[in-house]
Each structure stands twice: as C-alpha cells, then as structure tokens.
Amino acid sequence: MMSSPPPSAQCLDGKALAAQWQADTKQTVDRLRHTGIVPALRVIQVGEVAASSVYVRRKAQVAQALGIDSDIVHLPADVSHETLSDVIVGLNNDSAIHAILLQLPLPSHLNPLVYQALTDPKKDVDGFHPMNLGRLLAGDTPYALPCTPWGCIGLLEAYNLSIAGKHAVVIGRSNIVGKPMAHLLLQRQATVTLCHSKTVGLPALVRQADIVVAAVGVPELVRGDWIKPGAVVIDVGINRTNQVTLVGDVAFEEAQTVAGWITPVPGGVGPLTIATLMRNTVALCQQQVQG
Ligand code: NDP
Fold first, then answer.
1. pLDDT of residue 290
2. Residues involved in catalysis
3. Which of 89, 184, 71 is closest to 127 using CA atoms?
C-alpha cells in the first residue's frame, strides 16, 4: 500500500505581504511629497557589529526606494554616553526628522533603556520608549508599535487567521519581540503563555498552542513533534548556521508536516519587520505634520 504524502502547512508569505505594504507606503510617501512633506528616518548605529551593519544598510535602502529621506548616523563603538545622548537630543529637536531608530545591540557600556527613554516618544519608530510600551500595556494607543511583533500581527490579520479565544504560546520574552508580541495577542483576546529559558516543560506547552511565536535565537529549537496539528507557526528567529545559511528557531521541514500555517526563514517575518518600520516612519510623520 502506498503511504500518503505528509500534510503540508500553507506558507505565510511575509515577503509578498511586505512588498504589498511597501507599495502602499510608497503611495502615501508620494502623496506627502506632493504637499512638500518628506518623511525622514535616522538610524543610529554604534560600532561595527556585522549583522547590525547589514540590517541598517537594508533599512536605509528600502527607505530610499520608497522616497523616505533616510540616513545612518554611525558612531564609534567607544562613543561616550554624552555624545550618544547629544545625537539623540539633536534628532529629537530637529523638526525635519520624524523617526529615530537606535540599532541594537549597543556596546556593553551603553544601556539601551537609557537611550530608548531619551528618544522623543513621538519619534520612537520602534515603539520602545517607556511611554509607548506603557501605552501598549495599558491598552492605549502608542505613537508606534514595535516593528517585529506588529508585523506578525499584520501577517495574521492579512491571512484572516483568528486570534480571539486561541491559545498563543510565545517563546522568548525580549522587550523588542516576545513581551510586546504577548501583549498584542492578549489585546486581541488570545490566551497567552509567555515562555523563556527557565520555562519547564516547553515542548508540552507548545503542543497546546493554536498559535506559536518563536523568538528565541536558538536554531531549530522548536521541533515538529512540539506542534499541535493545524497550528499557526510564526518563526521570528534569524540564526546564521554558517556564513550564508539562515535558519529560524523552528525546525521548518518537520514543523511544516504538522502545522496548518507556517512562516519560512528567510522570507517570513524578516521582510515584514522592515516594511513595518517604513509604515511606522510614515505614520509618525503624518502624526507630527497633521497634529
Ligand atoms: P533575545 O536574546 O533578546 O531574547 C531571547 C529570548 O529567548 C529570551 O527571553 C530567552 O529567555 C529566550 N530563550 C533563550 N533560550 C531559550 C530556550 N532554550 N528555551 C526557551 N526560551 C529561550 O532575542 P530577541 O528577542 O532579540 O530575538 C530572538 C530571535 O529573533 C533572534 O534569532 C533574532 O535574530 C530574531 N529577530 C528577528 C527579527 C526579524 O525581523 N525577523 C527581529 C528581531 C529579532 P530569557 O529571557 O530567560 O533569557
């Protein structure tokens, strides 16, 4: 008897959705430019972390392609607290700049929380300022929402995948992905379990999940037999196994035979993060010029 082929999850195509969001953003930028308004983003990079350089360049390229005025403020790895603070305050006070992004990680002598709090919350394109995170927690409207989790929510919505009443398991509790992701899901009426490195019995918890969000940074941590049949799997992880190969936090080949929907790596969450950054930049610009 011939065995039937394993079921295959449907792909959540972040790349295609990001292209659509970027096309929409470009139209908005074109309209703003016709009225003499040019959305402007400044990315601050401290030091020479290779992955950061790639991300920063990519963000600048996409911004320029959409007509956003974009530039990188590159500071040396040994930059002082005073100099970095002065740069941020200078951008805060420059009315031609609408969005400020501080690329992480920072060198160990600089605490990112200090500089996120120093950034004008109205220009905080990553939504990391305590006011913006606090508004998210309180169910109020932040000036901007963190790009990666906000992009993941947009992905679920674009594919009409319901969140309300679902059990969502988020693996990873970073301020930039896991925690805001958990709150965005909670706001949308999911029952959320937020896991981390001290969580006991992670596979059993993940097996209960209708929606799994993996934001860990451990290559292929989540195995196929952790996934509940039909679950939605969002893999935020970007791990370099060698110079060229990127893998996620989910063992894709295994998981796709069990899941209902799954994001690939690359081509899933990564492009959405950048597209959301562009959307946030333009939204902040509109908030500032239109009051
Ligand atoms: P962090 O290192 O800041 O956080 C990782 C989280 O994973 C922590 O909460 C940590 O727990 C938890 N963790 C680590 N090991 C385990 C484990 N074995 N079991 C369960 N939990 C574990 O990472 P980020 O949130 O910044 O990034 C996570 C991943 O997402 C990375 O691969 C990163 O490259 C990627 N990323 C991708 C983006 C995109 O656009 N696609 C954007 C941002 C990040 P604890 O808190 O206890 O230490």
1. 86
2. 59, 103, 126
3. 184
pLDDT at 6: 64
Q: What is the chain's mean pLDDT, rounded?
A: 96
Is any atom of ligand 1 closer than 6 Å to the C-beta of 236?
A: yes
Q: Is the dihedral of CA 159, 11, 169, 179 positive or negative?
A: negative
173 in Cβ contact with 149 (< 8 Å)? no
Nearest CA residue ID for atom 36, ligand 1: 237
Q: Which two tokens stand for residue 120?
A: 């004008």
Cβ(172) – ligand 1 distance below 6 Å: yes
CB 220 within 8 A of CB 241: no
Please state, in angstroms and rounded to a whole number, the distance separating the CA atoms of residues 255 and 232.
10
Report d(CA 173, CA 193) in Å as an integer.
11
pTM: 0.96
In this structure, which residue's CA is closest to atom 16 in ligand 1? 197
Q: Are 232 and 212 in contact (CB under 8 A)?
A: yes
Report how far ligand 1's centroid is from the alpha carbon of 171 (Å): 8
pLDDT of residue 128: 98
127 lines ligand 1 (CB under 6 A): no
156 CA from centroid of ligand 1 (Å): 20
